[in-house]
């Protein structure tokens, strides 16, 4: 919601009744009035003493902070919201818009307009918080300048209303309401997590869904996963020429992923990080087919979605290559000790509940030989839309390629 002082923005906001449709409201003026009442400041600011003006200034700063806190909270929760501001500063407004779009929001703009003379008259009549005429005039000019650019940026997502003849508290014109409601309900916008995307992306696309991957070009709250130490060890032993990371994120996500991994000590080649921008099982299967065509013949593949695991298994079954696939289960690391013991039991016959001293374990280990264990990465390694394929190639006596 944009419009200068006296433009009728508050009246338009009330007339739209978006709160009844579940939208949250971000308006620092609402917070300010509540704070003034709480500390006992009069509503009419024209007769404030010096002490009261000082308090009012402090409350204004607090109200802005409260509005920012609400904005951040609603944005994090993915709540639809109405943000009330003048829109005078194109750069400041655009920065907020970009922050919302980066988090997956679809942003629309409602513009309240009225002639400057009407805006000045309305402002002078506001007993509680009237502004100097020059401030109203300056803001009016800034809004008009910014509005020319907003029209280009928003296109049919911008809705203008002239409030000159609209009385306060009276219903807004039906054609305007219909236009706004039709615009903001045209697309259903929401977020899905990595597991939901992997399971439902094909169904959603079939129903006309379009995916916005901008957020997935970033790595947020990344942490080391169970596969980290194994990848580090293989990098050290075999080098990183054929250690790969495959993700459903867009191609440009590789830069953020590479930077993150390098920051925690894992040096994976930038060119070995592939962003498919596609969460379908076929995308993963096609990538594996390309690797077969390149000469790889021994694969180890992991993914947190069973559909992808099955698709890759079908590829390996149809080619004369060796391979193993593994579903990476969410929060696998919480049961890591138990799972390891069960794996050892299956491989060695030693009961998983048995405990050995270090000396006995070493002695028995020498007799049993060496075992290799694959730790599937948790789906929480990167929060977001990510799957992993780690690959490592080495030469053997038969010059076969080994891919993990």
Provide keyphrases for this structure.
404 residues; mainly alpha; Rossmann fold; 2 domains; 47% helix; disordered C terminus
Give a short synopsis of this structure.
The chain contains 14 helices and eight strands. It is mainly alpha-helical and 404 residues long. It folds into two domains: 176 residues, 3-Layer(aba) Sandwich (Rossmann fold), CATH 3.40.50; 129 residues, no CATH class.
Into how many domains do the coordinates divide? 2
Approximately how much beta-strand content do the residues carry?
A: 5-15%
Gross geometry = elongated
Largest beta sheet: strand ordering:
1-2
Average pLDDT confidence is 79
What is the assigned CATH homologous superfamily of the largest domain? P-loop containing nucleotide triphosphate hydrolases
Distance between the termini: 54 Å
Do you know the CATH topology of the largest domain? Rossmann fold
Query: Structural class from helices and strands?
Result: mainly alpha
Known CATH architecture of the largest domain: 3-Layer(aba) Sandwich
Largest sheet: 2 strands, parallel
Briefly, what CATH class of the largest domain?
Alpha Beta
Q: How would you describe what is shown here?
A:
By secondary structure, the protein is mainly alpha-helical. It folds into two domains: 9-184, Rossmann fold (3-Layer(aba) Sandwich), CATH 3.40.50.300; 201-329, no CATH class. 47% of the residues lie in helices and 8% in strands. It is built from 14 helices and eight strands. It has helices spanning 9-16, 28-39, 50-77, 90-102, 116-125, 133-154, 174-184, 194-206, 228-238, 253-263, 281-293, 306-317, 336-348, 358-368; strands at residues 24-26, 81-83, 109-113, 158-162, 245-247, 273-275, 298-303, 322-327. The protein has a two-stranded parallel ribbon. It has a two-stranded parallel sheet with strand order 3-4. Helix 10 (253-263) links the parallel strand 5 and strand 6. Helix 2 crosses helix 3. The longest helix has 28 residues, at 50-77. The radius of gyration is 30 Å and the shape is elongated. The model is unreliable at 365-404 (pLDDT under 50).
